[in-house]
Queue: 4 jobs
Job 1
Amino acid sequence: MDVPTLRDADPNRLFTAAEAYAALAAAFAGHADTWRSGVDGRVSASGWSGTAADRARESLARTTGRLTAAHLELARIAPVLREGAEAFLLARSKLRAALANADAHGFTVADDGGVSWPPPGAAERHDPDAPDRARQGTELRDRIADALAEAAHADQVTAQRLRRYTDDARTGAGLDPGTAAMRLNSAVLGALGLSGGTEDLVRAGMPGPDAPPTEVNSWWKALPPDEQQRLLRAYPAELGNRDGMPTPARDQANRIVLDRMVTDLSSRQDLSEWDRKKLEGFRAIQGRLREDQGKQPPAYLMLIGDQGQGRAAIAYGNPDTADDVVAYVPGLNTEVKNMGGGDADRARTLWQSAHDLDPSRSTASIAWLGYDTPQIKGVAPDMFAVAGDERAQQGGAAYQGFLQGLRASHEGAPAHLTALGHSYGSFTVGQAAQRPGGIPADDVILVGSPGTGAQRASQLGVGADHVWVGAAEHDPVSHLPSHEEAKGIGIGAGIGGVLAGPLGAVAGGFLGDRIAGHGDSHELWFGQDPASSGFGAHRFDVADGPLGFASHSDYWNQGDGRDGHSLRNMALIVSGHGDRVSGQEYR
């Protein structure tokens, strides 16, 4: 297989052949039914008896069995041709996407897949920011080689499968009812994943799980629209959560998956506690999507899954076309049902506020739950000891990929992208920002934060001037002590808890801290207090909030005026008007 052969191939001929065989199989089924009812059935019901009748029935039954076997054989040829055509089409799309990328960046591709490029000029040799042409060329060569190998493999496997049917026709095995039934059972079990089955060429032809979002997006866009629709219907679970896929395609696939998961969980007996919670959550998301149908802005289901505690993401407005995009990460005690309720409300409210502040710009506001949040009962100084940092690290990796996917699928000029984390979600955002490569965000907003794992705003990769912090004075999570401080205030927290419950534990803990005189007051459980001057971010104005834990969730309730400016300030940042944000003194 070489580049011109695959590049110029026309898989539509295979699709046409598949349709012809499907039509032939359907017509043959009609003839077999006519024989079965018009000849075999009539003789069997005629009342004819005796030796001659027995011999006639045996002969007719053999013919009926052969006709049935032949129909089963014919009916399986069309799927073989169709799968081969789709696999070849996927490989061709990968190749064409790679060739387009090569052409756009000045690379030359030989017929055998080799990649070359002109030597760098003097300016490029001395430019430290010049692209690494050798690395880019190697990546292109590997992509092209993979596409050629996949096409050659699909061609070989399809030919082998078709050869079996020609051998059956030549030997007569295709007319044996037992053989046909056995192969049908094997094919069904393979399709259901209950046996080794045969290789799924189409699934194998999709970009690998480690393919970058830009490659996924290029591959998808190179597919013809009718093939895109076939894949979305046949492989929704494999496509709906792929970072880099266009948002409308993700939404279409994920709605199919959502309905299937609800049906599956509803049919099970003895669900675990978390399965019951996920079923409740998925039903809430279904209801939310029905409620939002036909409204503005349109809602898109960008993520759905039953891993762990459940996964979901809902966007208000299309991130692929919006001028401004914000992706909000929730924290403590968030369950998947919240994505059909309060967290979706927050995303929708922030969209509305940003839209009202600057109607000339389009906005997409996303609520993203792509990880398992800590489930903590009550509030205590060492509450995050239960959570640890593993969830934030895993969530940070997933969130980084999600934001990279938003960049890859966006059309036209890049959007102004804001990463927003609340509570433990701010720690998750901080972990994503500190991963190799960082996050492709323009601004970072942290509200109700117990720390980000960073000591300085500059460590979050967007520049300290683009890190924004909202911390209500009555929000206990934004005051939680460091590890060392928590050890010194355990006695005070215990006394407070006995006297007044969880809030008393926090108050007693702070009192114990002051009596014991422990630690740096600007050090929180997960690093430097983002609202402190030492962290170096912008602290924006928020109201003190109600007394107690309610203030931890109050940031979206504060409008413009006596109730504080939290929502307005977040909307200004999201819409690219950070110069109009009202500030607040550091702690």
Job 2
Amino acid sequence: MRSPGASAVLDVWQLQDAQPELLAAAGQGYEALAEGAGRALAGVHAATGKAGGCWTGPAALQAQLALAAHCAQLEAAHLESAALGALLRDAASEFGVAREQLLRALADAERAGCAVAADGTVSAPPPGAAERHDGDAMDARARTRQAIAERVAQAVRAADDADRRIAERLDRLAAGDAVDPATAREDAAAVRQLIGAALPPASAPPAEVTAWWRALPPGRRELLVQQCPELVGNRDGIPAEDRDRANRIALQRCLDGDAVGSVGFRAIRARLDQDAGRHPPTLLLGLSGEGLGQGQCRGRGILCFGNPDTARNISAYVPGVGTELEDIAGRDGDRALNVWTAAHAADPARETASLVWLGYDPPPDPSGLLDGDLAPASVLSADRARDGAASYDRFLAGLRATHQGPPAHLTALGHSYGSLTVGLAGQRPGGTGADDLVLIGSPGTEADHAARLGLPADHVWVGAAAHDPVTHLPSLGDALTGNELASDRLWFGPDPAAAAFGANRFTVADGPLGFASHSHYLDPSGGDSLPNIGQIVAGHPENVHRRPGR
């Protein structure tokens, strides 16, 4: 009779002659190879860890990167050998079980006088004269033949199924998808740590990072982008296009890992997809889930419209209270693009780059602030702005360091609490390094005069809508003590729009009554605000429409 498994790839005799023990031996060999590679990898990490900072300088960095490249290859050999060893061991076990089942069935067939063909057909010898006249004996003969045939078919079918499964796993292994995820993460993290150690120290100035990066061979730079995207993408002093490539890799890893803050990551992914192929190009210059899911931290994200390394005019916009990671892909990304459009219209002959910088944790949106209730302590405090100011200064120094050709005209732009961040950045040693500084909807900067913001007072610009409550709110001290309110003092010091502050005040729309007017400065509904900011960013102060200070 024909067995149910006659269509199997393997036949009876192939399975009978199989030698699963050879597969097991090969698997042991690969596992031994994996263990050796693992020990070698661990030894390299231990040795480099002990070496510490005993060898520094360009040659040391090149050596670390070369070693990291070899370690990446060693890691791949370790993981693939371990996976292949386990695969061959599993294959030996499955084929061994199926072969043992077949041998037992063939032995029973021999005892019963039955013959088994290669395709699994089982035949019995002709019955004797007595059996032909004994119905029970004929039925028993048929049942024996049927049982043997089924056992043979089951064994061949099990071997055939195992063959298909093993082949599929081999295909996945060849594609790099069959390594153990936990082991892969552990070993990949060790290699990334080694590679990351090749970067200049965190305290290195951006200009030093730029010089180091440009001195690396292209292959070494690519290794860093691929293996340590989260370090490259957020490192001030690395060129914009390299940061963009690294951050897109890091973004995909965040999405694949369903990381905390995935709403913001998905929004950024959608924005990048939406802008693909458009002008100006959209670059992702910063990305991090830092602090997400922990209290009131916002994550980090920087989008740029245009390439700041080649642009003649650059605007770096810092948003304020309530900004979330997803907002840089939404409303605040749109505002940065509006600035690009306005600056391009002001001077189409000069390439522009306009970015939104969420490199700090702005306070949460203060509900009830304008209804007479006190805002949350984080809004009343300048601590978050002060922390952000240091990061902002470093970021702008990185833009200066990576720029190609003559220095660009750089404008620092802050809205609302972001203007406090920009103002405090200007008051740090060395200032922002910007050529112009724009404050819109500002609650103050803790400076008593525009000249304190790190550049001449005539390069400080202020937009304050008549109906924007934030530009009229009294100082915290006056509000809490009940003292007579000074007309030129806001939440964070003197009013930047006051004549005594010494800044240039430009015209903006008065805006609707209420808090809505606070959000119009970078929107087309803001009257002269966007065109004026475009002229400032484009380096044409003579075209700005001005108005007297308050």
Job 3
Amino acid sequence: MRAETAKRSQQVHDVSCGRALRERLLGEAGSPDPVPALVVSKIAAEIQGHCGHRLLKCRRLAMGWTVAQAVAAAHQLVKNAGLPKVGLSERSWKDWEAGVLPSPDYQDLLCRLFATHPVSLGFAHDYSPQGPDPLWNGTAVGATLPAGQALARGTSPDDGAEVAETKRRDAVKLAGLAFAAPAAAAQILEAAAAEALEFTRQAEATSLGSGTLDHLDLAVTEFNHAYSLKPPKAVFDAVLDYRRKVDRFLKDDHTHRQERDLRAFAGWLSELLAWLAHDLGNARTGLAFATDAFVQGQQAGHGQLCAWATDAAASINLYKQRPAKAREAALKGLAEAPAGHPLTVRLHAQAARAAAADGDAEGFTTAFQAAQDAYRHLPPRSPRRFGMDVAPLADYALTSYPATSFIWLGQAEQARQHAEHALATYEAAPAASRSPSREAIARIDLALAHAQLGDPDDAVALGHQALDSARVVDSVRSRAGDLTTFLTRRYPRQAAVEGLRERLAAVDAARPALPAATPSGA
């Protein structure tokens, strides 16, 4: 560890040098399979001393892994050991190898993965005196003395009882208790008890009030309920204020368990801010908060949160006409989403919609079939998110997403059928779960289908109905712009078309501005 923390003056070698060292040392050891932990440790030490990499990277190279293989091995370990699912990515691993300190939970996972301790991975310092320990033979704590030393003391290796007693006496001497009077020994033990209490107090030290986490849980729940019911600008301001509060809490004293909870709340707030920024027409801010939500989810070990964050990123990229990025985000989310969860249906449908936007009919069909398969395998009881049933999100994805997709693929009749089904589904929903913006988009999809089928009058009427919505967010304005552009090109001399275009221009001019805000990087 001293070498790790000393000034790194030597030139760091290319990884190919470390791989060559590994092959040579394995050959010298007889090419064992599997490679024993002690051999891996020796190879890592050789790579560190010769190549100058940080200790975590040396361990990985000693195992013969790429970063991707190391991440895969960690996920497999989590699965095999029945540990809580983690959101570990290649990016996080590379950050750790560059010197970023993992959270305590990830440090524990890495120590399990490499069957070692934090010091050997560069996560902690070793302050023990230099030189050999008289009770240490290099293999394990409490190991017997080497045979040569045992014979020098007049005992044989077979005399286990005497050796054990000698070790016990030596250990007591090292602790300083053998030379203390009984009263002094009792005093030492009393002081140790007080010290143990202080260790516990520090582990539980926190600046959070007893009800802070409960309050945050309630606030996040209320914000999610308000999302479709209140103007996005007002909700954005309130949620951003809470996101800043959580950032301050993360900078104060808290326990490790509280940090996980705080990062999860930070992620949920950022996920909601991503959607709100999207609704207000600022893709850059929306994507920044979606990224923050994903990172906070990773730090909290909350894979489902990571998946919801990618769902937001997929939609934002799609509306900014970046279908490849949208598809990439959806696939990234599928790697994190829980099996048998409606979110998997939605993410497959997102990938299908992105493929359609890219003109990839075959890709759309494949991804949409995957969404339908995932839907058929959903459990009878749907999970809830902040008290709300998430099953309708899967239903909506299987109705509205294909309607939009068939519009982009030029299959007007298919688009009309799915848009009518989507609109009927939205209108039949209970009042508390109605989504005015989704209904508006379904009407625009239906309008575009009518326009493609040669019925401009119905298309214009549906366009006005969409703009009558109580929640004309940016996604609605964007799709309405697609409608007016198509109608103007196809029916350039119709006054009704011009009237719809002028109305949309007035709606655009009146939209609220988004305050300058990006994630704080907590």
Job 4
Amino acid sequence: MSGGDALVEVKPPQGSSTSQLTVALNGKTVTEQLSADDTGKLRGVIKGLTEGENTLSVTASAQGRSASEARLVLTNYAQTGPILAGPLLAPYECRTVESNMGAPLDANCSATRRFDYFYRTAAGSFKPLADPLSRPSDLAQTTTIEGKKVPYIVRVDSGTVGRTIYRIAVLDEPTADSVDPAKYKPSAGWNHRLVVSFGGGAGTQYNQGVNQATDALADLQLSRGFAYMISTELVNGQRGNAVLQGETLMMLKELFVKTYGMPKWTAGSGGSGGAIQQLVITQIYPGLLDGLQPSLTFPDGSLHVADCRLLENVYKADLATWTNPKRAAVDGFTNGTCRAWDLSFVNTIVATNAAGCALKDTTKVYDPINNPKGARCTTADMRTNIVGRDPATGFARSPLDNVGLQYGLEAVNKGTISAEEFVLLNEKVGGYDKDGNPVPKRTVGDPLALQRAYESGLVNSGGGGLAQVPILHSRTYNDASGDIHSHERDLVVRARLQRANGRTDNQVIWVGPRTGYPLASLSLDVMTAWLDGITDDPAPLSIDKVVAHKPGTATDACFDVNGTRFNESPAYGATGICSALYPLHGEPRQQAGAPATNDISKCQLKPLVTADYVPTFTPTQWARLNTVFPDGVCDWSKPGVGQVALKGTYQKYGELN
């Protein structure tokens, strides 16, 4: 717990009542901070915890017998964290002013908590409600999923927790009492369910991030009565560190429960980098999210797309040879997708000073000559508490590796590229140096970084908490346009779930046209029915229970531009309407022989043998291949180097070498 307080429930022992209980915190009576509820228990928020261990004791007195006592040790952490994720990122810049939260209160970018009110107009827009007790003439009404018709007024709770700026929006009917935060209680409009938004992108920013109170005004969720939460840290474009993002969600859930009460359930929502967060956080922090709605899914942040820059460099140097069909055969993606990866997010993986790490003070940014100890802007640098630092350089350990990788293996065996083109491609592709510059030598991953990425869960194995939640993917189909959000990623997640759990029936995949059909609304309706069934069932949570409560509409499907639904599952080699509308593609490592799970960052090696190839190589070509791969080529039948099981959930991190 954090912030100096804790939500506490006390159940009297048999034969006692709440009036006979005395509650003390560190020896000081705090019974008055709790009140009896209608179930015969004491409940409330205990304040005054000190940082570190605190002892909460309850004594039950009764006539004619000895008093009984219970004790509980409460460990309290600072409101700014950290709790599990390890030392705070530095350097670090605040963005409270840009987020209209005022000047920061401390070095950890804390801000004064505040509450703003907005209303929805009859014309369908949100406006500020300066006087929350007023009722404008153009105020709309909304009907929640529980059938309650209420004024469409929204209270937005803004503050900071764990250095993130959060916003919590919920329907409200303000009264003279409830506008006082100390007297606030949720109104009848809240349906007692919470949706958390996870933002996309992939960033390496050394700042707090910016949002506004209006960013939490999500009509889809609020109009139905859901509480809706956003956070600057829960935007993958800030930092691709799911350990820190999960800790942030944990602290925000604690704040939410202490303020609003326990939600019936909590669902995630968000696409691309927002999908990564939902999947990886649920694997390593089970219980924070009860249901997932990832759209434009990626399985995690280890996407191997740094390969694309290396391939693009080869293509651009010989445009006459590398025609679009040949590129597509090597990449697996449709034409333009690798180029889009190169132009968009490869820098966040390999470049050490890309965009100045989003620091205003660029003097703090790494430069190999002028500032060799400055902030380095790679994904690995956002995760130093997990992957560690190389003591020889002080740089973050990196799992990037392409040793033994045979780019274009499937293409040469199918005859799409020639034997000579295959050899040339692998001779020229190269790798990256420590500063992200392409070099002739292949990239060698750090052994500890590789192992730690797997055992921490930053690489999504499909295990952890993912076996006990409904997962409802929805995506617009973007493959044909060279968009990075390609459809095969849904099947990568499915393959990992199958390997980890022996089944995938808690996962549903929907695909629709790029424009036109609103899958988000349908997804929320289906997820609501699914989670209501699960939470209303008193049986212990299990994958069997999750699957038992699947609504009839929670099945794989695709939708055409008219919204017509076809209940078909995506699969390589499948025939049917969905496979014709939305064909699957691949990825460069899959075209090099990687398994469907595509989660091997560094492969184990085997000797080159001519039997692995359809074409016949000349003696000179074979000698050149052996020069490119002196230690052998990828043996995809074996686990990756350092590919170990998830070490555990809710792991705690410190500063690592």
